[in-house]
Amino acid sequence: MKDTRAYFQFSQQSVADAGGPHRQLQAALEKGDEPVVSSAVLFMFDQAYGWPAGYTQAVAELGVYQQTFEAPQALAGDEHDRRALLDYFGQPEHVVGSATKTFAALYRHAERDSQIGAAYLGFCPDTGEPCYLEGPVLTNLGFDVLYPMVLARHGVTTIDSDVADDETLSKLRNVTSGHMTEGLGQNKVEWFRIGTSRPEVASASPIAIDPLLGITTLSAAKRLAADLLRIRPHVPTTPLQAGYTFLAVVAFGEDTFATLTELKRRGSDPYAREFDARFTAFWQKFYDPKAGPDVAEPDRFACDLLGGVMFGRSNGMEMRIGDYTGQQYPRYEIARTVSQDSLMAADRPPAIVVYDGQCVPELPTVQSLQWPTRALTFYNVDLDSTGVLHPALGQYPYMRVGITSANDRAVLAHRDPSIVGTLTNYIGRQAIYCSSNRAQRVWIPER
Predict the structure, then answer these.
(1) Strands, E assignment, 133-210
(2) CB 3.0-4.6 Å disulfide test: which of 196, 213, 244, 284 passes with 356?
(3) Model confidence at 329, in pLDDT bands (50, 70, 90)?
């Protein structure tokens, strides 16, 4: 508590004035002179710092756990856990005899939970019951800690390569491919990639996500444009202008990527001029003067809002040149464009999509409109000086895990109960999960 007070540059009196314990009690606590503290006193710290109810109590309980290193009996694994652990490379058999709960055990309920897109954070250390991811969460826990969340799921999981180290990606690939999946009780998992060629996923199938798929109203198009502008504020456009152009691109009915590309090219060659003529003729029918002068012409800057998604598709392209009548002509293999329905169909196996967050920073925002509830996404978050989370959360940020390098107090300070929860204070495989306005301890399995 002393370190926390120093972090926020508060005095003991200012903490007391904000609803915390009186100054004398704080001084005794910080010196270690008060070994027993009531829950009511701990709750006063929650009040003073604006933390969710029970957060300070959870921190105190983590301190006890750190000193004892004794896992509660509620976390003891059953036979299903022990069998699953045998299938991990390098797992000594003698460790299995005292196995604790694993995510593999949750697979028994995965078929039921897949209907609601459930994802598990871990287990409650007091009851042993699984803890669910209730909404978007901001955390400083690394992907090497969180990747077992993927193992108990049937749906699609998207991973920013910026948050996943090589060893963890390789481990996840091994666990979800080949004979090991059978031991975990899982089906084989399909792997895809967007905009990345990392060796760990180089053999995965390159795909593209249509950034405008499913947009049929101007309000949805404006919402997407507004979220993208939070990522690319330098683009000289507005949500109305970009959104109106996005809707026109959808209504035009041709390949979205090709249409956006030709709008960007501005008729620079005969083929582009022919496209411009066709799109201009369409626009004259699409545009109604009642819409106002701001949208009288296509907004070509709107294309820049989706530059990363466009690059992600191009980076998955393969091409070869061959000799045709004495000239070398290219043959293109373009990354396949997929939809939510195609990846999440009932007869499809689970899927993992690895993308390059540096090249395609807007992918989580685009996904939030298309995959509102069932896709679990891990992405990199920058807590900049403005306090804005980057990338933008989007309108439907369910099943999203933003990973940052910031410390626990900074993460918690960015918490907005109506938008995002937090997962912090990782000690001995326990952490504190804050959702809505409550805090609880969560035990996270290693595998």
Answers:
(1) 137-139, 156-160, 190-194, 205-209
(2) 196
(3) confident
Residue 383, classed as helix, strand or coil, is: strand
User: Which uninterrupted H or E stretch holds 409?
Assistant: helix 408-413
Q: Which residues contact 87 (CB under 8 A, 6 or more apart)?
A: 180, 182, 183, 184
Distance CA 354, CA 157 (A): 8
> What does the alpha-carbon distance between residue 440 and residue 407 come to, in Å, rounded to a whole number?
19
Among 178, 205, 175, 191, residue whose Cα is nearest residue 107: 175
Distance in angstroms (rounded) separating the CA atoms of residues 431 and 442: 5
Tokens (6 digits) for 57? 């109590």
* CA atoms of 130 and 277, how far apart (whole Å): 58
Q: Specify the pairing of strand 318-324 against strand 156-160.
A: unpaired
The helix/strand/coil state of 152 is helix
Is the distance from CB of 35 to CB of 7 less than 8 angstroms?
no
pTM for this entry: 0.86
Backbone angles phi, psi at 305, to 5 degrees: -65, -25
What integer pLDDT is reported at residue 82 of this predicted model?
Answer: 66
> Can you tell me the distance from the alpha carbon of 430 to that of 43, in angstroms, rounded to the nearest whole number?
21
Whole-number Å distance between alpha carbons of 110 and 127 = 20
| Length of the chain in terms of residues written | 447
Tens digit of each residue's pLDDT (9 = 90 or more) over 242-273: 999 999 999 999 999 999 999 988 777 788 88
Q: Which residues pair with 432 in a beta bridge?
A: 424, 441
CA nearest to 308, candidates 154, 162, 94 = 162
Q: 79 exposed, middle or buried (CB, 10 Å; 0-12, 13-18, 19+)?
A: exposed
